[in-house]
Q: What sequence folds into this?
């Protein structure tokens, strides 16, 4: 009950802070892009807070528990993608957004191609984005289940209510500043928990011996190797995750709020460094959990179980706050992407092109509430955090990577070519995932074949003579 009380107080603090910051929101520019006034520090904190979410905490710890050191590539691949974002796409698309007063990635797609491209991407991303929101809510539900015995559906509803409330109040202005507090709590919590657990297990070598003693011969093979069961498994993580962190609308729209180009490069670069360094932390915690609790029925319960059964109360409370912070900050990034896309890309783009600032704000807030409800419902149906996130990352990469990057760096790509490449990429990836049950052909992820098909179609349509 003490841990549950701490969780309730922390949730109330996040809502209160969001309400306080919301007083600075005077129009859609503040809600959508924080008045384009975020310095490098706020860009860094809001991106890293968004990127260290359910997949990087509960999910990554579960992968470390199940697969060992090779689980580093789950978060590490996000860091690799963030390096590319800092050096290439981030500054370039920020300049365009600043010059043309763009609020969303949909704004950019319509500017570069046409309204049909904007609408198609928005439709595909809404489907995928609800799954990543569900993943954050599932993680909170697992925590509440272990801490207080609440069922998964009840936990999903509670998580959805907290996240939706503080985000709806203040948009990016509130999220960026609440993220500073959340980031500080999560980094302190995970660092101190790892140090304590390593000391309790007398260092890495003793921990390794304890884990090896409970593994079968088959499980031991590759458990303490960064390539695990081979490079195909590593390639799958890199191909699915790295491109997603280059072109994710939720991240790019946070970048639109930067005050200048140096803030983009520095903030995104620091975020990349943070991800690359942090990637090993949940993996080691998961490995320690494997040695302490080798018979867990669900590997994603590794982190909640350690929190309640292997840490002293004070440190457990701090780690609980860290996990809750991670899920909240990642979920508000998804709500940001969904609500801005629904209001700006759909409502103003197709339904009411003459909508004024007040109407746009009302639709954005209403969209956030509706998406929070839908995310909670979907979270009740999906089994694990990683399964939910994989849907999003796969669909996002297949649909958006080629049109966005090609549009930034080549003037030859037409709107017809962009739409055709999206449809081809998504069709091939979905077919591959279904036919191979997610394993890919010849151990090559289906996303690679989707990229190849989309690129060929884009090239063919772009070079075809116009009638």
A:
């Amino acid at each position: 009950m003490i841990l549950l009380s701490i969780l309730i107080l922390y949730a109330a603090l996040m809502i209160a802070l969001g309400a306080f910051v919301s007083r600075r929101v005077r129009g859609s520019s503040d809600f959508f892009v924080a008045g384009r006034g975020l310095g490098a520090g706020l860009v860094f904190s809001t991106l890293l807070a968004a990127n260290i979410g359910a997949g990087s905490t509960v999910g990554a710890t579960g992968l470390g528990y199940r697969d060992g050191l090779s689980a580093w590539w789950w978060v590490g691949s996000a860091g690799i993608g963030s390096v590319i974002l800092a050096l290439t796409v981030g500054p370039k698309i920020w300049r365009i957004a600043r010059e043309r007063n763009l609020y969303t990635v949909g704004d950019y797609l319509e500017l570069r191609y046409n309204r049909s491209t904007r609408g198609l991407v928005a439709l595909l991303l809404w489907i995928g984005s609800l799954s990543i929101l569900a993943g954050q809510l599932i993680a909170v539900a697992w925590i509440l289940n272990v801490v207080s015995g609440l069922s998964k559906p009840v936990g999903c509803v509670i998580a959805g209510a907290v996240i939706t409330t503080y985000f709806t109040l203040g948009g990016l202005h509130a999220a960026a500043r609440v993220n500073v507090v959340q980031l500080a709590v999560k980094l302190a919590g995970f660092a101190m928990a790892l140090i304590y657990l390593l000391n309790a297990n007398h260092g890495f070598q003793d921990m390794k011996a304890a884990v090896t003693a409970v593994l079968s011969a088959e499980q031991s093979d590759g458990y303490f190797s960064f390539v695990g069961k081979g490079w195909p498994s590593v390639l799958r993580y890199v191909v699915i995750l790295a491109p997603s962190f280059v072109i994710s609308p939720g991240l790019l729209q946070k970048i639109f709020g930067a005050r200048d180009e140096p803030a983009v490069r520095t903030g995104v670069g620091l975020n990349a460094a943070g991800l690359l360094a942090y990637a090993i932390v949940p993996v080691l915690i998961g490995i320690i959990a494997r040695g302490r609790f080798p018979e867990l029925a669900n590997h994603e319960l590794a982190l909640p179980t350690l929190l309640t059964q292997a840490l002293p109360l004070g440190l457990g409370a701090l780690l609980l706050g860290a996990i809750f912070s991670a899920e909240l900050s990642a979920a508000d990034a998804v709500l940001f992407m969904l609500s801005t896309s629904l209001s700006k890309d759909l409502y103003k783009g197709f339904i009411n092109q003459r909508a004024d600032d007040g109407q746009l704000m009302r639709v954005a807030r209403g969209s956030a509430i509706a998406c929070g409800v839908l995310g909670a419902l979907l979270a009740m149906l999906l089994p694990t955090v990683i399964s939910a996130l994989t849907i999003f990352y796969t669909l996002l990469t297949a649909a958006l990577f080629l049109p966005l990057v090609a549009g930034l760096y080549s003037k030859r790509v037409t709107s017809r070519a962009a739409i055709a490449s999206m449809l081809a990429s998504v069709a091939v990836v979905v077919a591959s995932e279904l036919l191979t049950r997610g394993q890919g052909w010849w151990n090559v992820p289906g996303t690679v074949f989707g990229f190849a098909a989309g690129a060929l179609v884009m090239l063919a349509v772009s070079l075809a003579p116009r009638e």
